[in-house]
Amino acid sequence: MKLSDDDFTLFGLPQRFAIERAALDERWRALQAEVHPDRHATQGTAAQRVAAQWSMRINEAHRRLRDPLARAAALCELRGARVDAERNTAMPAAFLQQQLAWREALEDAADVQAVRTIEDDVAAQERLMLGDLERLLDSDEREPAAAAAQVRALMFVARFREDIERRVDTLEQ
Q1: Which of 37, 44, 107, 117 can bridge 51 by disulfide, Cβ–Cβ 3.0-4.6 Å?
Q2: 7-66 CATH
Q3: What residues contact residue 156 under an 8 Å CB cut-off, 6+ apart?
């Protein structure tokens, strides 16, 4: 193991979008047991400092691999397609129209039930998009550039889901 290994290599996992959460968590626990600073307490401060670096690196990798969007972004980058969401906000027209319709519906929602109906629609669409993302990343005909665009779109959906929760909080007050 090297600190510079990609997250998948660090965890001994194949570079795939579809990963088994239980296997990921089990590997995280095993890695943490190996490197935890308390385990190196008798080896001096330098060894503890190195162990702390490893522990942080393993925790960061675990956080990224657990998060579907972060995991997908990492795969895109490993395959030469940067997500670059801060600078690349181009989206297909149909997706932008859907976003606009959702936002208008959210603004017009008069009660929590109406917002929850929108939330259900968004969640269903998100599941479909995640399925498409898995196909783009894990199939034999991988399409990392298209996958990067899908990650950017899913980031928009994630932000919209946060807006939904804020709207629910406002209506419940």
Answers
A1: 37
A2: 1.10.287.110
A3: 91, 95, 99
